[in-house]
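Why do we bother with holo predictions? Because pocket geometry can differ from the apo form. Keep that in mind while you read this record for flavin mononucleotide.
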Amino acid sequence: MGDVKQVGPLPGGVDPDEYDRRRRRVLWSMPSGLYVLGSVAGGRRNLMTLNWATQVATDPKVVAVSVEKGAVTRELVARGGVFALSILSRDDRALVRKFVKPLDDDGDPASLADFEIRVGSTGAPILGRAVAWLDCRVVDRTDCGSHTVFFGEVADCGQVAELGDVLRMEDTRMSYGG
Ligand SMILES: Cc1cc2nc3c(=O)[nH]c(=O)nc-3n(C[C@H](O)[C@H](O)[C@H](O)COP(=O)(O)O)c2cc1C
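The structure, written out:
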């Protein structure tokens, strides 16, 4: 099995390493979007690259995001009870590389670590480059192993006039999870 950590059940008669690679590839093949998740609590704000987000209910309008237990964002969403999902243009694919570690918050209301932001009605930061955004209040959460899934009711949203093609995971060479 090399140094691959066995996660979850193993079907009978399979090579564990081969199965692990196959499961990863199949999980990576699931289509998904690519977003920047804004959070705030106790005067600290953060922006984090995230692809595990989806609408999960229509009445009320609820969006779920899944955040690593060790992430600063997890702490901020848990304490602040809000998050904002920034939806980006496909042309801004390079931007998501900037939000894979915690940002220094300089406290400037118009910017966060030199990135232009706006502040949503919940107080969560929205990336200035976003072409659309969902501003959410956490209504529920559940721990799921490595991650915490936060359920947020949409409190406000917006979009720029020319929405165009929005960024998806497949627009990048990056992968996450699997
Ligand atoms: C393409 C890509 C997608 C990611 N998707 C997620 C995600 O859905 N959930 C998550 O918790 N971390 C995700 N990450 C990792 C976080 O961006 C990274 O660990 C994060 O910045 C740590 O969070 P923090 O800044 O709040 O500490 C992703 C990273 C990349 C490069």
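The chain is about 10% helix and 40% strand.
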